[in-house]
């Protein structure tokens, strides 16, 4: 039987939702591996809406589930209905929506809170010893919930290639172990069944992002 993987989205668009290329790469690699993706998102308002041309917030309001449905081509479910029993693994792509809609990392960093629905889902998969794949900024969710876990968001020294490296330092302060890696690499925390990769935390060609996410998906399915 095909493995069933929950993919949790956070809206549509890098600056206020899920990073579209990351979400698409996850779905493509799951499809290629013969796995069945089941897409979910919380039925909540976004923290704010960003004009992706100007890079500035706008006064409008949008719903995370409704916006995520754009990526899922309408085939999406309310995160509140997710039942871990019928699923083999969980993957959460990155994008600022993870730090704005699924958590308050964007405004509070290591002192953030995580949406109760999202935390409940992560804890349910962890308790069931089912693998969790996280890329780009989404490993901060594991760092906050699972002290002592091992993750990667790329490198911990800021430079032109790694503009968000301070994220790694904040995660270390939460008590997790950050493992430096290249964009096409993944890190597997076997004890916690976490698979992480940096994706767009790195200024890299889009095909390298796609390949790194492919490795993440393959490792998640291997552990499932």
TrEMBL record:
NCBIfam families: PRK11780.1 (NF008747). This is GAL3B protein.
